[in-house]
Amino acid sequence: MTTVRTERLILRRWRERDRGPFAALNADPQVMEHFPATLDRAGSDAAIDRYETGFEANGYGIWALEVAATGEFIGLAGLSPVTFTAPFTPAVEIAWRLVRTAWGHGYATEAGRACLAYGFEALGLPEIVAFTSTTNLRSQAVMRRLGMTHDPADDFDHPRLPPGHRLRRHVLYRAAPPA
């Protein structure tokens, strides 16, 4: 499967040695602030298994993310089909999640640009979406830096979160292939 390289990052398939650091990332309450809950080791391992299954099923997916110069695992970035029904589906989503020590270095934006380029150039996707809770201002800033556009009319209540949940309301950003 494809490995994607940027100036500072490697987006690659998951390895067994990623499981521990990924579980630590998913157990961090600050990293998971805009998710319904942290994940324990079993939940984190199941996520890696789903990501790997996605590569086999779709030919693309959510990559492990490492710093090229050091080999340090810093999180995930990639593309995934949206698995719930919403006004904008079917769609392919771009995603990222980084360890706190990797925040503020431009890694999410750099990985996001690589994912968008891969989705449009290698996969020929007509559109890529990103969404997050209205409270996740850091991810929304990355979406804007990636050149994604936001129309408030597209915002939605996430169907997997119950009414009244603090994270239910989501913003939707869209990206189209370069003209």
Automatic annotation (TrEMBL):
Q: Does the keyword Nucleotidyltransferase apply?
A: no
UniProt keywords (A-Z) are:
Acyltransferase, Transferase
**Entries under PROSITE patterns matching the protein:** GNAT (PS51186)
One Pfam entry name:
Acetyltransf_3
Question: InterPro entries, alphabetically?
Answer: Acyl_CoA_acyltransferase, GNAT_dom, N-acetyltransferase
Please tell me whether the keyword Acyltransferase is annotated for this protein.
Answer: yes
**Which GO molecular function terms does the record list?**
protein-N-terminal-alanine acetyltransferase activity
The protein's Enzyme Commission number: 2.3.1.267
Which ranges carry the N-acetyltransferase domain? 22-168
- Which PANTHER family does the UniProt record give? GNAT FAMILY, PUTATIVE (AFU_ORTHOLOGUE AFUA_3G00765)-RELATED-RELATED, N-ACETYLTRANSFERASE DOMAIN-CONTAINING PROTEIN
Q: What is the protein's name according to its record?
A: Ribosomal-protein-alanine N-acetyltransferase
From which source organism is this entry? Thermomonospora cellulosilytica
Taxonomic lineage is:
Bacteria, Bacillati, Actinomycetota, Actinomycetes, Streptosporangiales
